[in-house]
Each structure stands twice: as C-alpha cells, then as structure tokens.
Design brief:
- The chain is α+β, with helices and mostly antiparallel strands and about 160 residues long.
- The chain folds into two domains: about 35 residues, no CATH class; about 120 residues, Immunoglobulin-like (Sandwich), CATH 2.60.40.
- It has three helices and nine strands.
- A five-stranded mixed sheet has the order 1-2-7-6-9, with no helix packed on it. It has a four-stranded antiparallel sheet with strand order 5-4-3-8.
- The protein is flat.
Length: about 160
Amino acid sequence: MTTSTPVKEEKKQTTAVAHRRDNALYTLQEEMNKLFEDFTRGFHKPLWLEAVSDFNTKVDIKDNDKNIEVTAELPGVELKDIEVLVEDKSLIIKGEKRSEKEEKDKSFYRMERSYGSFYRELPMPCAIDKEAIEASYKDGVLKVTLAKSGETASNGKKIQIKAG
C-alpha cells in the first residue's frame, strides 16, 4: 500500500507539467524568456555606464578585544576624495571617484570621463573612543582602527587620514 502513494503523486506532477506544456500562453512565455536570454547573453553594459555603476565599496570588519579594524577597498580613489567620520555608534566612509581616460590615434580621438560618489555607513557593535582612531590609505585600501570605549557615543568627529 505504501508503494502506490508515491506513484500517484509522481503521476500528478507529470500531468501538471504536461498540462503546462500544452498551454499556449505558458509555451509562449517560455519561448520569450529563452529568446531574451539568448539575445542578451554576451552583451556588456555601455561604456558610459560601466565605470560608474560597477563601483561598490567592499568592506571587511574585524572585531577583537580592544579594537575594531575596518578595511575598505577604494581602487582608483584619491586620498583627497575620501572622508571618514564617526557619528554615534557608526563609522561613515564617503567620497567621490573620478576617472578620465583619453586615447589618441591617427584616425580617432576618444575621451571618457566618469564621476560617482559612494557612501557607506557601518554600525559599530559598541561605543568608540573618538580620540583613539587611526586611519591610513595606501594602494587603494583604506584601513581604520577604532578603539572600543565603555562610554555611549554622542557627538561626531571627522577623522584625519594619513597617506602611506
């Protein structure tokens, strides 16, 4: 008796799939989905959109007994275009990425410019000692070390970033 139940369920599923295949609208939808997938496969974003839309600040956060260490990847961003702030129990990393590419040849001239801003607010698991924060930037990587504090954070503070 137990062997007949799975067979009945399998038949129901098979007939449901067969019924969908016989449905003209379902078949049309499948064909249209396949057509669009085939058409868009291999296409890339337009060059004017690529440089701005692909920029996303990747961040690693490590928490140990005394400090919280934050590492942010900011490739192509200059130090002067980065701002680091601590407000309440959050670390804020913001700035602007600018890119300019020029290409010359005998038969053509091409100039591409792109601008984009970024903003990341990272909530901290505890209060931060605003007087004991260090930040450095080298080779497109921002490192911020935040000392933990037993106090509750209230006012914000802008952090100076050192080169190298």
